[in-house]
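Section 4.2 – Deliverable D4.2 (structural model, holo form)

The reporting period included a commitment to supply a predicted holo structure for the target in complex with pyridoxal-5'-phosphate. Inputs used:
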Amino acid sequence: MIYFDNSATTFVSDSVRAKLMELSEDPVSANPGALHKLGNKAIELYEGIRKETAELLGARPDEIFFTSCATESANTAIKGYMSRNKRAGNAVISTRTEHKATLECLEYLAKLGYEIRYVKVGIDGKPLLESLEEELNKGDVALACFTLVNNETGSVLPFESIAKTIRSISPSTVIYLDCVQALGKMPVNLTAMGADMCSFSGHKIHSVKGNGVLYVRKGVRIDPLILGGGQQDGMRSGTQSAVLAGAFLAALKEVSEGIDGARVKASEINSYLRRELSARGAKILSPEDALPYVLNVSFDGFESETMLHCLEIYDIYVSTVSACSAKQKKVSYVLLEMGVDRKTAANAVRLSFSRYNTMDEAEEFIRHVDEIYEQFLVK
Ligand code: PLP
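Output (structure tokens):
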């Protein structure tokens, strides 16, 4: 099997699996809210995991909250900020290339009467600074939502210049940053970066599904999305799961330790596939300076889904548009927004890599692409 669909989800690593088992055992899995000594031990363990997670992300422990997924983190951050800070402004700035986790929250806010202003992006997927300035200059911007690494193309947001522009034109605007596809693939130090709220997802870094992280910078006030027993400083009610938080931490440690080696490997695979696929007439849609873990490519003569199923015959797994919306059979809204023509976008396939992929797999992939062209291309 060749699994080139790591932006959709990754497989669980051995160390995460071991950590899950370890943390599921009695008595460490007692309720961290319990008053007896098992409860004390459980909350100590949980807070220890939170502290280590914060350290690895360059944050304070009280800025880190465990959630069920990045979608929950995005909902909490975006809706929670606007709900708590009604006088911060009536406008939100973003792009139309965000993940649905953000876009649907913005739609929700629009229905409540907020004005959503979309900044244009270029063919490289990056927001155009003039467009950002124009939208900021209209004033009243409470919140700006961006993504550090686009899940469909690997396009990297020039966060420093975006943040600088926002801070200089509209200093009170709070910045939410989706860091899901960046984690473990490029350095992320939250304090140094200076975003106000960020989201992360465990299953994109070889943890299990069901765990995410929300970062909220100290001083930023938001309303919680999930109400109940007031766990996690009232920010996210529900009995804390040391098992899931610990799985996230184990995965984070592994990706952090191996970050440089994994990137070299991904770059090698990416460059090889770019070269070989271009030589075969395929169009590379990921920008040159994209993160090497994602390669979006349009195969002439094959609609995205046809290519996906042709590859599947050889036990090769890729994505069409992002998996969350793939079943709706739509052409990628991200590519269209970047200015890619509809026909090219309709033939786009996303290859996405992890530290487990090899050059042998890349070479085998190319051999099968040649076979697919020979067997299935209608001339
Ligand atoms: N943001 C980006 C950029 C993603 O790629 C994804 C998942 O595809 C999400 C958010 C949502 O993550 P989760 O599946 O943890 O809710």
